[in-house]
Amino acid sequence: MSVNPEDMDFSRGSYVKGIAVNDRQFLATTQFQQLRGVTRDPVLLQPNTKQRASDPDLSELGELHDLVQRALQGNKKTNAKKYRQYIESVVNGGVGVLPPIHLWIPHLLDVATIGARTYAIVPTGEWLLSIDGETQLTAHFAIDTDPATTPEMKKAHRELNLGVIIHHGVSAKDARQYFHDLNVLAVRPNTSLGLSMNTSDPLMQVVDDVQTLDVLRGRVEQSARQLSKKSSSKLVTLQNLRQLVVNVAKGISGIQYGSRPAPVEDVDMRALSDVSSNLVLRYFDRYLSDIADREHSLAGTGPVLAAVGAMGNKVLQAPAHERDAELEQLFHTLKSVEWRKGPQWVGIAGNYTAGGVFSVKGTKEVAYAVYTALSEPSSATYYKIRQESSGQLFDN
User: Fold this and answer.
1) CA-based max dimension of the chain
2) I want to staple 101 with a disulfide (CB 3.0 to 4.6 A). Which of 74, 96, 133, 250 is the partner?
3) How far is CA 116 from CA 11, 16, 19, 39, 350, in A?
């Protein structure tokens, strides 16, 4: 409907600016200072909360909420805390993007065109419920309601522009279907592709330096989790290359981080880039044929690359003038390793299948064992994988 600007009645409710996509969907632009007036804190709507139990209106809204949302617990609850930190970073000018929140109300809202603008009018005392983006909404309320939030942050956060999609005049049954479609049908990118897009990770900046080396240029698989048997052009996945860099920074304990961010406050990033680059350059140059022969050799596998990276941590920890000598010692240690898949690696990097094929286990599962075998002469496995002896003979 068309309304004259002077006839706007703000006692009716909140005028949310946007575009009517159709008669059931409204694409809105708003700020949290308005959003908090048309939504409730999801924490208050959770089952068995004291607030919900003692407030009839909140209890009724909570029952409706339960039809279209899952409880705020487990990973969802944990992620809300991380989301808060992310939003605060965006508010402070950091690089980031907040996806639109999908909100729902069962009955139709009035949509009015006033001058050149269109508004959806949310009546006073009525509330929109999130059917997608509730974790983000929870984080917004956490920032706004936390007494520890500074006044400056609270003001800047309330004025942050947000995108919202309002679904109105939609039954609870259909809203539940929307929840399913928005949460289940979406295809998440795999870990490697996600890592490649994370420009805020300082470790990925080091990985970018490493993969520009001539020996790796164009030979890093950016999206797939594993290298195809038919691919002869790629030498390493981005995920495995990042784990190598993480382990140069953190040692073999870097395995625990996987694709998650690793703390680097105590790491000299320039030195990390130099050491990682020198290590990768020499390792891939020296063992190129073994790395490329994925069918018969272990040199290019995730567990081995992670272990070699962890060995590079000793180089990183050395004084700058001693790093070249430490790197020489590292490669001297690797000199007699037998990289071919065989019985010498059984119980270390993997095992034979019933069909007689050597199967390499996951990096997290065996990286410690591989690291021990590659780097610790006091271990029996050190000599097991080498063509030399020290009271024990390599078994062909």
Assistant:
1) 95
2) 133
3) 21, 14, 11, 26, 68
Q: Is the pLDDT of residue 196 over 50?
A: yes
Angle, CA 246 vertex, CA 242 and CA 249 arms, to 5°: 145
Q: What is the rounded CA–CA span in Å between residue 258 and residue 201?
A: 13
**Is 80 exceeded by the pLDDT of residue 254?**
yes
Burial of 77 per CB tally in 10 Å (0-12, 13-18, 19+): middle
Give the list of residues 6+ apart from residue 318 with CB closer than 8 angstroms, or none: 325, 326
Collect all residues with Cβ–Cβ distance below 8 Å to 270 and sequence separation of at least 6: none
d(CA 4, CA 339): 79
Separation between Cα atoms, residue 165 and residue 156, nearest integer Å:
22
Which of 158, 100, 167, 163 is closest to 129 using CA atoms?
167
Nearest-angstrom CA–CA distance, 32 and 14: 13
What percentage of the chain has pLDDT greater than the value 90?
A: 71
Here the tokens at position 179 are 């929840």
- Give the whole-angstrom CA distance, residue 292 versus residue 37: 60
Q: 50-64, 224-238, 287-301: which has the minimum mean pLDDT?
A: 224-238
- Which pair of structure tokens corresponds to residue 19? 């575009």
Average pLDDT over residues 199-203: 79
Backbone dihedral angles phi then psi of residue 374, each to the nearest 5 degrees: -80, -30
Rounded distance, CA 129 to CA 61, Å?
A: 9
Tokens (6 digits) for 105: 């109300």
pLDDT of residue 10: 75
pLDDT mean across residues, the chain: 90
pTM over 0.85? The answer is no
- pLDDT for residue 16 is more than 50: yes
Closest CA to 285 of 346, 223, 331, 253: 331
Give backbone dihedrals phi and psi of 123, rounded to 5 degrees, phi first. Answer: -60, 145
Contacts 24+ apart (CB under 8 A), 212-219: 213/277, 213/280, 213/281, 213/284, 215/280, 215/281, 215/284, 215/285, 215/288, 216/241, 216/280, 216/284
**Closest residue by Cα to residue 144 from 127, 133, 128, 158:** 158
- Mapping DSSP to helix (H, G, I), strand (E, B) and coil, where does residue 101 land? strand
CA distances, 130 to each of 12, 86, 140, 161 (Å) = 22, 20, 13, 18
Residue 340: strand pairing partners: 297
